Amino acid sequence: MQSDHEGIKELLPEYLRGTLPDEVKSEVESHVKDCRDCRDEVAFLTEIVSIEAPDPGDLFWKTLPRKVKLTVEEKKLGFSLKYLFGGLPVAAVAALLLLALISTPVQRKDMPAQVLIFRDPLTASVPDYGDITEKDITRITAQLTDEELYLPHEDFMGHSYYREVASLSSKEIEGLYEALEKEQRAGG
Amino acid sequence: MDEDLRLVERYIAGDADAVEDLVMKYQRQIYAVLYRMTGNTEDARDLTQTAFVRAMEGVRGFRGDSSFKTWLYQIAINAGLNHLKQNRRQEVELEESLMGHHSGALSTIIEKERRVSIKKGLDELPERQRLAVILRAYEGLSCAETAQVMGCTEGAVKAHYHHAVKKLREILKERGYAIRP
Ligand SMILES: [Zn+2]
């Protein structure tokens, strides 16, 4: 057995962690019994490993899996929204968000059809969503609050289009609407 | 098929719950590695989450030619190394957590001082040597797994580990802590 000293010594960390298969384990044990050098190594390793990582507590272990899952899903959605809106001109995004507000004050009856197609973001888009299905988006958006949902459109000042549009007076919204209409007539 | 691979495939097929199973399985190991790298519980907690999120985001890049475990360790260690580069290590917290409760018996205090010495010795090692010790001695990864995680040959792992152990013994001896038989 002494001839395999180097090989056995190499297995000691795994031996101490208990990750070796049984037959190898007994081989290691019978070697260590008669090998001073390996016994030293075991003592040394045991010593170093005595520094325990402090336990962050049950709450951490119990919530982490869900936190990771939600973060991954949100990021996936954020990416697809950015992709979705990234492919559209800013005016179109504004129009889309304007439509989101249509239930509030400025209901227009003579809304042209070109604008109305933006009502459904899925049909207004060309981009490839990769593996995100419509079902995913519905499910994930249902879990998000309005604020989270509109986060991807935030500009560098931290204002979202949603909030900007919402802060406009009805006169300003009419103005914006007319500008959009003009742009579309011009073929924009 | 390997259980981890099955979970990864379930996730890719659209079952988000597979993420929870993978995290539950490896969270303690990943946290421990990151704690040993950073010496700070708060950083280790944040980095553990970061590592898992990155792993899941990049899971399509996981080819299955290494095990999911070594692949995950790789991501965790990269996250840890980047973090260390950005913030030089805070040793104070660790020292406090180890030395904190002075009410114990003299033998416990000596024991704690010993541990602080070991931890300091570990921190003084060059990065690659330290990683080799963390992965081999603490995590019990095999030479082959450690090599995969560190992105080097098994020979290099053996050399790093050997130098590290030698240096640690010297450091401990200098400070008057002989290894107990
Ligand atoms: Zn031996």
Order of helices and strands of chain A: HHHHHHHHHH
C-alpha geometry of chain B: globular
CATH topology of the largest domain in chain B: Rna Polymerase Sigma Factor, Chain: A
Q: Which whole number gives the mean pLDDT of chain B?
A: 83
Total separate domains of chain A:
3
The secondary structure category of chain A is mainly alpha
Report Rg of chain A. Answer: 31 Å
Low-confidence stretches of chain A: 103-130, 145-167
Ions, cofactors, ligands: which are bound?
zinc ion
Distance between the termini of chain A: 83 Å
Helix-strand string of chain B: HHHHHHHHH
What's the N-to-C terminus distance of chain B? Answer: 44 Å
A few lines on this structure:
The complex is a heterodimer of chains A (188) and B (181). By secondary structure, chain A is mostly helical.
What would the keywords be for this entry?
heterodimer, A: mainly alpha, 3 domains, 10 helices, B: 181 residues, Rna Polymerase Sigma Factor, Chain: A, Arc Repressor Mutant, subunit A, binds zinc ion
Task: Tell me what you see in this structure.
- The complex is a heterodimer of chains A (188) and B (181).
- Chain A is mainly α.
- Chain A folds into three domains: 5-49, no CATH class; 58-119, no CATH class; 134-185, no CATH class.
- Helices cover 65% and strands 0% of the residues of chain A.
- Chain A contains ten helices and no strands.
- In chain A, helix 1 runs parallel beside helix 3 (36-49).
- With 181 residues, chain B is an all-alpha fold.
- Chain B folds into two domains: 1-91, RNA polymerase sigma factor, region 2, helix turn helix motif (Rna Polymerase Sigma Factor, Chain: A), CATH 1.10.1740; 97-181, Orthogonal Bundle (Arc Repressor Mutant, subunit A), CATH 1.10.10.10.
- Chain B has helices at residues 3-12, 17-38, 41-57, 68-86, 91-99, 106-124, 127-138, 143-150, 154-174.
- The termini of chain B are far apart.
- Mean pLDDT of chain B is 83; it is low at 89-94 and 99-103.
- Zinc ion is lined by residues 5, 8-9, 31, 35, 37-38 of chain A.
- Zinc ion binds at residues 5, 8-9, 31, 35, 37-38 of chain A.
